[in-house]
Structure formats: C-alpha cells, structure tokens
Amino acid sequence: MSKIEKAVLAYSGGLDTSVILKWLQETYGCEVVTYTADLGQGEELAPAREKAQSMGVREIFIDDVREEFVRDFVFPMFRCNTIYEGEYLLGTSIARPLIAKRLVEVANETGADSIAHGATGKGNDQVRFELGVYALKPDVHVIAPWREWDLNSRESLMAFCEMHQIKVEQKREGEKSPYSMDANLLHISYEGGILEDPAAEPEEGMWLWSVSPEAAPDQPTYLELTYENGDVVAVDGKAMSAAETLAHLNAVGGSNGVGRVDIVENRYVGMKARGCYETPGGTILLKAHRAIESITLDRELAHLKDDLMPRYASLIYNGFWWSPERLALQALIDQSQRYVNGRVMLKLYKGNVMVVGRESVSDSLYDSHVVTFEDDAGAYKQSDAEGFIKLNALRLKTASKMGRNLLGD
C-alpha cells in the first residue's frame, strides 16, 4: 500500500463519509483534511464541521459555492440546451467537476498528496471525480474506499461506527432509508428502494421539491426571463444573480408541478439504472433558452449546436468536463451566444412549461415582412423558389431516370 501522508476527503458528515474518515486514519495512518461544498443541497453544514473536529480533523474546509456552481457550470451547460438521452438534465453530473476542482485546490493549499471520495464502484461519480482530479492534478493519489474495503452494507457501516464510537445522527438510525438522494441547486435525485424495479411507480411522498401536476394551482403562473449572451440576468424584470435565478425558478416551477422525470439511463460503467429527478428550474431554463435562440440564432448555427449537443451531454455525463474536447466545444457554444439577447414569456400550468412569447429588440433574425401571408411588398420573390426546388431535385431526378428503385419494393 502506498505511503500516504495527508488526504483531502470529499466530506458530507453523513454515515458513509464519516466511516471513510476514520477508515483513512486507520488504514493509511494519514492526516485527513475534509472538504464540504455547499451546492444548495439545503442541509445545515455546521454539523459536518463539528463532527470532523470530534474525529480529530484539524483542517476543515466548508465552501459556499452556489454562485460559482450556477454561473460557471450550470449556465454554460444550458447555453448548449444540454440534455442526456433525451430527458436527464445532468443535475448530479455537472456538480462533480466543481467539487473535483475544489478538492485539488484544497490539496494544493494544504500540501496533501492524496484525494479521497465516497463514490461507490458501481456508479458514475467515481469516474467523474477521478477524471476531474487527474486532469487538474495528474500526479495525485486517489483513494476510493468503496473499491478497497469490505464494508459493503449499511449494517457493516453501522457496526464500524459502533466499534469506533462514531456518532450517527438520529435521523439516520433505524431502518434503511428507502432512497439514495443527491441534491444541489439544479436538482434532487432519487435511486434505490422500490425504484430498482423499473415497473414500479414512484410513491408520491418521495418527491420533495414539487407538487404533483394534479395538485398544482388551477391558475397558470406567468414568467418573463431576460437574456444576455445566452444567460438569464433577470426574472420578471428583477435583476438576479445566477444562483438567485435558479433558486427562484426552482420554487416557482416546483409549486406548479414542473420538472419531474422518471428514467432508465445508461451509466458510463456499463449498466442501466433507474432514477427519478426533480429539476424544476432547469426544465424552465431549457424551454426558455431554446425559445430565445429560435429568433436570434442563424439556422445552420442552431442546427450545428443541436448536432453537437448529444456529444457535449455525454462528455459531462461521463466526467470529461475538464477535457480538451469539452473546452473546445464550450468555446464554440459561447461564441454562438453573442446575440442571444432578449425576453422570453412563459406560462407554467400543472407540470407544463409553455412558451407564450419571445422578443429580441436588437438581435432578432425574425423578419415579419418576409414571413407575412399578406402583401410582402417585394420582400420575398416567390417565383425564386422554382429554381431552388429544381436544383435540389436534380440528383433525385437523375437517380430515378437511371432506374434506381427509390421505393425499396
């Protein structure tokens, strides 16, 4: 086993990472530095500090990274209208490169030679954390306890806590929680329990951020989002920071039953997994961004972005945020947003997000004089379409004259 002097642990203060903290001290005989990120998960983080202190940790880092998370990770992702496998808005995936970045920064600041995380050997997060860490600090040693130890059940973790007198919060004692959950400002996810049967409908009581569409208000809620360079800068005319925007849209969307999805996704490690997600603010952002782009982006640029989006989404899902190809794609995406400015009007109603208007005073490519069914005063010469159609039909006519069977019978 490699000699480890000091390890930075991605630490939540929960059962798993508390066991990992003690296990690192015992197994590697190393000093442990804890790092905890406030990504908007809605949990009190002071207990994590107190618990780390009680276990002998001297260097404890707790960061409020909510603004950085939305400004530098979520918003750039939504500039590409990013969605994985048609439904997943990548709420967990996009948080991991930021945590990896901060783990590396803390390791550099404290002189640590190792970084440890609590992701299991079955999931995507181990890949995301480690690819990010290696990209930013290539010579660091990574410790993944779930791939090393034999504590493979909740019961064994609880026994370890009892043996080492590690305090377990009252809410975590007793029966196993039915779901594995992860939350940040973009979403909350649910896995495990009855969700492991893809045919089982989720219980209504599982959802924490949104009301059911049936229980949503009978009157619609209207929103107006103001865009500058592809990012929302104001809601209903009120300027908001990135994190404030997402938090507000989460509240409004959740109260209208917006943002629930139930999917079976293809994990990077090779298995299929069923997960449920609540992403009310992200669902609104995706719909609105496509609406403002519909009047401000050139057709071929918009189609190019649509072609690239699945690749971009896979890079984020698979943990390649810090890769040269993602950075290159981001440069193209950001360049495309120069003229994505204006306002989008939305109506939220019982789980639906409907675009009811879009406007860009300075950058709209929509020309009412061209598209009108009334007298266009020569803005578009309809007879020009004949030559256009004949040129495009030339190869089809040639193939048909050669006797090629285009019907495939």
Q: How would you sum up this structure, described in words?
A:
This protein is 39% helix and 19% strand. By secondary structure, it is of the alpha/beta class. It has a five-stranded parallel beta sheet with strand order 3-2-1-4-5, with helices on both faces. A five-stranded antiparallel beta sheet has the order 10-9-8-13-14, covered by helices on one side.
List its traits:
single chain, 409 residues, alpha/beta, Rossmann fold, Argininosuccinate synthetase, chain A, domain 2, 3 domains, 5-stranded parallel β-sheet, 5-stranded antiparallel β-sheet, 19% strand, elongated
Task: Provide a brief overview of the structure.
By secondary structure, this protein is of the alpha/beta class. It folds into 3 domains: 145 residues, Rossmann fold (3-Layer(aba) Sandwich), CATH 3.40.50.620; 138 residues, Argininosuccinate synthetase, chain A, domain 2, CATH 3.90.1260.10; 34 residues, no CATH class.
